[in-house]
C-alpha cells in the first residue's frame, strides 16, 4: 500500500506547477522536497500514519485541482487594491523583492556595502 501512496504523491508532484520566479519560496518546490523526505526509501518506505498521509494527499490534491476556487468563485479578479493576480505575481517575484530590499537600504548602508573590502571567505573565518 505504501507503493501506491508513493506513486500518487509522485503524480501530484508532476502535476503541481513550479514557479521559477519564486526561487526558494515556491510551494511546488517545497512539496517536492517534502515528498523526498517522507519517502526516503521510495516505494519501500514504511508509513507510520497511513490515514494522516491519505488526508494530506487529498488536501493537496484538492488545492491542485482548484476545488476551492470552483466551490467559492470570486466576483472579481482583483482585490480591494484593484491589482490583478498577474500584477501580484510580478511584484512577488524573487528578483523584484531583492530590488525592493536594495531600494529600502539607506544611502550609508549601500555605500558601506559597496566599499566593504572583506571577501566572503573572510566572513566565514570569523
UniProtKB/TrEMBL annotation:
Subcellular location, principal: mitochondrion
Cell compartments where the protein resides: Mitochondrion matrix, Mitochondrion nucleoid
Gene Ontology CC terms: mitochondrial nucleoid
Pfam families xref list: UQCC2_CBP6
Residue ranges of coiled coil: none
Superkingdom as given in the UniProt entry: Eukaryota
The keyword Transit peptide is annotated on this UniProt entry: yes
Keywords in alphabetical order: Mitochondrion, Mitochondrion nucleoid, Transit peptide
Keyword Mitochondrion (UniProt): yes
Biological processes, Gene Ontology terms: mitochondrial respiratory chain complex III assembly
Entry protein name: Mitochondrial nucleoid factor 1
Gene source species: Engystomops pustulosus (Tungara frog)
Lineage: Eukaryota, Metazoa, Chordata, Craniata, Vertebrata
Amino acid at each position: 500500500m505504501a507503493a501506491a501512496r508513493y506513486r500518487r504523491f509522485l503524480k501530484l508532484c508532476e502535476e503541481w506547477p513550479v514557479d521559477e520566479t519564486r526561487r526558494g519560496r515556491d510551494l511546488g518546490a517545497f512539496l517536492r522536497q517534502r515528498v523526498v523526505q517522507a519517502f526516503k526509501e521510495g516505494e519501500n518506505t514504511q508509513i507510520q500514519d497511513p490515514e494522516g498521509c491519505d488526508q494530506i494527499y487529498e488536501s493537496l490534491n484538492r488545492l491542485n485541482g482548484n476545488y476551492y476556487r470552483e466551490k467559492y468563485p470570486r466576483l472579481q479578479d482583483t482585490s480591494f487594491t484593484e491589482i490583478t493576480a498577474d500584477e501580484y505575481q510580478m511584484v512577488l517575484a524573487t528578483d523584484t523583492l531583492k530590488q525592493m530590499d536594495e531600494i529600502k537600504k539607506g544611502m550609508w548602508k549601500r555605500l558601506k556595502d559597496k566599499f566593504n573590502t572583506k571577501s566572503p571567505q573572510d566572513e566565514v573565518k570569523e
